[in-house]
Structures are given as structure tokens and as C-alpha cells.
Amino acid sequence: MIQIIFLLSLFLSISNASVQDFCVADIKGSDTPSGYPCKPASTVTSDDFAFEGLIAPGNITNIINAAVTPAFVAQFPAVNGLGLSAARLDLGPAGVIPLHTHPGASELLVVTQGHITAGFVSSANTVYIKTLKKGELMVFPQGLLHFQATAGKRNAVAFAVFSSASPGLQILDFALFASNFSTPLITKTTFLDPVLVKKLKSILGGSG
User: Fold this and answer.
1) How many distinct structural domains can be found in the chain?
2) Which helix (H) or strand (E) holds 120?
3) 36 lies in some domain
4) Does residue 116 share a domain with residue 189?
5) Residue 162: phi, psi to the nearest 5?
6) Taking the model in full, what pTM does it have?
């Protein structure tokens, strides 16, 4: 009898334990390694947990003929602290998402329209490339350089899911040629011809 009473009291204490189910971000606060501060639970509504920002295609009228529309914590505060986020990729004919990394997350890509050639480079400098069709998936491990490009003459669409609410994004070409990274240093560290470096900087808007 004593054991039954003990088990019942233990069950009741566990069932009444406080659990924080979610932490919808207050993006007016500061982002930290552990995420944004939480909105007061009394102000959270069902609308906070739904996001319409990936319905419309992105604007692909640009130099890469492609667009990435994020649903990271800054756009979709409900993913705060949940260890996931998403993005939409739109690629026109000859579209490309250039070599880039997500320092904070691995990526799972799902193709929903057209064909996409995608790949990544491992830390052992092994290249893994696959052409994906509608319904197929590919994974890109955290921090590794990877890319996506249209395969064929039709537009392509894909959705990416990340293992972090803030996966981060750094595009290699933009880091080199859309920044103030000096031409002499780029030439020295990449072995590229300085004339080519200056040409790429003029195209992408870099200086130095």
C-alpha cells in the first residue's frame, strides 16, 4: 500500500512538472548563441506558429538568376530554440546558388520542381555531386562548401531544411569579390590573376 501511494505521488509530481514547450522569439531583443529571448506566453497566438513567406517565388532577376527566401528565426520567430529552420530556392534557367557554407547547420534539400545539380566538397577535398529531380533529396553536412544549379532549361524550385534556427550563410564569391578584401591579398591567397580579381570585384561591387 505504501508503495502504491509513493508511486501515485511520484506520478502526480512528474505530471505537474513545468515544461517550456516553445520560445517564440522576441526579435526586438538581442540574438545570442542560445537564441533570442522569448515573447511573453500570454502574447503568443496560433499565427506565431505558421509562416506564409515561402509561398511566393523569389525574385530571380539578378546576376545568379536565382533567389533564396529564408525562414530563419529572424523571419519565423517560432523556430527559436527548436533547432530547425527552412528556406525556399528558386532557380531560373542557368540559375546557380554559388559555393557557400552554413557555419551553424546541416542542410536537407528537397526538389519540388525541375532538376537541380547539387554538390558539396568534403574536408578531404572529395567532391560529391548529384542531379536531383522532383521529390528527391540531398543532404549537405554542416560547414562544408556546397552549391545548387539548374539542370536543364526549365525553372527549378527546392526547399531546404536546416538543423538550426540560425544556420548562417556565407557565399564564397561574395566574400571574396563583393567585400573590401584587397586584390593583392586575394591574389596571394587564391592564386587568381589580379586582373580577373578586379574584374570580378567590378561585377559584384567589391573594393580594394
Assistant:
1) 2
2) strand 116-121
3) no
4) no
5) -115, 155
6) 0.86
Annotated binding site: 100, 102, 107, 146
Claim to verify: residue 159 and residue 189 sit in the same structural domain:
no
User: What are 163's three cell numbers?
Assistant: 538543423
Local confidence pLDDT in tens for the 208 residues of the chain: 566 654 555 555 555 555 689 999 998 888 777 789 999 999 999 999 999 999 999 999 999 999 999 999 999 999 999 999 999 999 999 999 999 999 999 999 999 999 999 999 999 999 999 999 999 999 999 999 999 999 989 999 999 999 999 999 999 999 999 999 999 999 999 999 999 999 999 999 999 8
Are 162 and 107 within 8 A, CB to CB?
yes
Q: What is the CATH number of the domain that holds 117?
A: 2.60.120.10
- Binding-site sequence positions for Mn(2+): 100, 102, 107, 146
Residue 195's domain spans which residues? 175-204
Known binding-site positions for oxalate = 102, 107
Cell 562548401, residue located? 145
40 occurs within a structural domain: no
